[in-house]
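Late entry, evening session. Most of the bench is empty. Finally got around to the prediction I had been postponing all week. Sequence below, unchanged from the version circulated by S.P.
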Amino acid sequence: MGTRGLTKVVDRNGVTKVAQYGQWDHYPSGQGVNVLNFLLEEPKRVHKLELALDKCEFVSEDVSEILYAEYSNKYPDNEEMDRFTMVMPAFSRDTGSDILKVVYYSAGKVLLTDSSDFENDDLFCEGVYEINYQTNKFISKYGDVVAEFPLNNLPEETDYLLAFAKQEVNA
């Protein structure tokens, strides 16, 4: 069973540009560290990701279902569905926080599904990892623990994980 969650990016105007549901590893040492390491990977990554948000476009649930149906009619076996995940990663529950790489590296429009509502699912949404350009913060929520870090002063992985350990001890 997976640890489900959300990878979210909010632009400087407060508009959600990415809200990617993920099925796997939405605990701080999983998807949280993945987001953190993505942001720390190269100088100016935080700024360049913000510029890439213009490529993001949410599509309706109807459109995403049509895309999925067209592909599964064309390629009915499971192996071909793996190919769909490669071609349209934004429509896969397996992509998780790697959606940030899709947005960052894509040359053209990035079609996305808006899973923002999943953040409010107290039963099934176990972790939310948000890059918020309006507040200039990387916000990680796991269970009842919330850790916030300035985008211009992100912690190293050890300090990031320590923030969750400290809050759990103090709770």
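Two things to note before I forget:
DSSP finds six helices and seven strands in the chain.
Helices lie at 28-40, 45-52, 61-74, 78-87, 99-105, 157-170.
Will write this up properly tomorrow.
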